[in-house]
Amino acid sequence: MAKLTDAQKQRIFELRALGWSQRAIGAEVGCAQSVVGLVLNPELAEGKRTRNRAYARQRYLDKTEEERERARAWRAANPEKAREANRDWHRANRAYHREYWRARPEAARAEARRYRARYPEKVRERQQSYYLIWREDPENMRRMRDRVRAWKRQNPVAVKASIQRRRGNASRGMDATDRILSVEYRKALARDACAYCGAPGEHTDHMTPIARNGTDHWWNLQRTCQRCNHRKGTMTHEEFLASGRLRRASGVILAERGGTGHGHFLT
Hints:
Elements: H1 6-17, H2 22-29, H3 33-40, H4 42-61, H5 65-77, H6 79-92, H7 94-102, H8 105-118, H9 120-134, H10 138-154, H11 156-170, H12 176-189, E1 203-206, E2 221-224, H13 226-232, H14 237-243, H15 245-257
Antiparallel strand pairs: 1-2
């Protein structure tokens, strides 16, 4: 069955509005009467698409091993075409794809685990980008803080254990002198500007995060604003400087607060 052009579809609707019969419309636009019916009746069109999907699925299940091998060989020889065909299909069938995985939660979770294991860098980059956009909404941050507070109230033992683990990791390799120096250095940093953008300092940050085996030694501490500290996350000082996120964070802050920042940090 030939695919209708946009001009043919427009003409069909115009003739339908004038009260023409389906047979006369088909003769006028030069197409089969059944095609006109699909255009005029959305339910009929959706039923046909459903039958086509069922037929295609059964055709796929009935394929012989030889046919499957030919398909695999073609995909291996034409990876770009295969990826583009997959992308086109997913774009055209978003709702079907979503419902498919929603009806199979266990299979969806297994597929997600396989994807994360295969593309860890892509997943990490996507999560970081999403979080940076998500946290710009104050309402999102308020809801997150409320959930964290509620969780802490319901799990006091886990919170205490987490604090003890963090303190143990942060003080690793520190003696009494190191602890005194750490406290005094925090006091000295209290009025410093952000080490990255020059905005007023709000947080004392670990250059190598405790989550990445950093410690609370004085030489691992610096002063940052809240925005830069949150954007830095669990990156080290060097990783944050090279990440490209520093430029975006600094540019926004400097525009908002009218500062000039530390020129040697801005690239």
